[in-house]
């Protein structure tokens, strides 16, 4: 009996498979014992692994080892930056009530902002254009109108839904002129586009392992040593006193290897998946001529194809494709089982119907031309059935 065909996995923006080299590192360290805060030999050996991993991640990202703070992943890192920096700034200057961000951010940033707003902070969202790019002029005006009242700016490097890449160095420079800390969620950017912490001029940068071929449950906040943050977790005082908790040494070691591989292969990886992505978009357009590509047509992640299919419900399309062995994403939130239109597309000026009729196809290091072939073969009949269901 032959094995079933391999599903065409096109949801790498959600998570991507662990690389074999990373699995080897992870497995090797799982057999070792040692708390990195213990003083005996096993503890010192674990501490050595942690600090060497910190050095390797820093070297790959243009940072200093002391700037790499290990966390459980992107959500925790975003929360630590958004809440921790805002709290610290407000504790020394209560007038720092404003926090600037954008409506296209990941919910790991937007939800902490809502939480801060409920407790007295004033959250202001910078407008974006129809491609999801931040309006730099409007941002600069908003910030400089009353810079003394701003606690933090948080703008993502690359959007997780539509793939638009922001001019981070330009945005960070405006904040730096006024001594305002700048945080960026670079979860989707690391390994996909060039990312250099020092050169970008940002003060804090979020990344996570499972988006770049590493394990779940480990990430980092790269933060300038001069950046003051209040901790979210209290306990042992690990990670510069802002992130207490026993470190997962096997995951940290695997994370470091994943970062090295992703950053080292970035240029060739981007060229390969960009070719697959462009082929996918071109061939889907040939089958569904009225499909719309969302996001910036040039300044975008190489593996991202976010498409709107007029007259369709994205959830219906997703399930129809899944039945044909094609795995992708709507990229939208779902609350209490009720599908919601993408907040990113709404911020870009799309109608709710357009936002609900969209799918995200995201390619990664394990993607092949066969995955693109599978999408092209399945998309025509799926769109036809999805449109018929709404008649």
From TrEMBL:
Domain (Aminotransferase class V) ranges: 9-375
Query: Record's InterPro entries?
Result: Aminotrans_V_dom (IPR000192), Aminotrans_V_PyrdxlP_BS (IPR020578), Cysteine_dSase (IPR016454), PyrdxlP-dep_Trfase (IPR015424), PyrdxlP-dep_Trfase_major (IPR015421), PyrdxlP-dep_Trfase_small (IPR015422)
Cofactor(s) the protein requires to work: pyridoxal 5'-phosphate
Give the molecular function GO annotations.
Answer: cysteine desulfurase activity
Reactions mediated catalytically: (sulfur carrier)-H + L-cysteine = (sulfur carrier)-SH + L-alanine
EC number(s): the record gives 2.8.1.7
Keywords on record: Iron, Iron-sulfur, Metal-binding, Pyridoxal phosphate, Transferase
Give a Pfam family name.
Aminotran_5
Keyword Iron-sulfur carried by entry = yes
**Any keyword Transferase?**
yes
- Hey, which family's this protein in? Belongs to the class-V pyridoxal-phosphate-dependent aminotransferase family. NifS/IscS subfamily.
Q: What is this protein called?
A: cysteine desulfurase
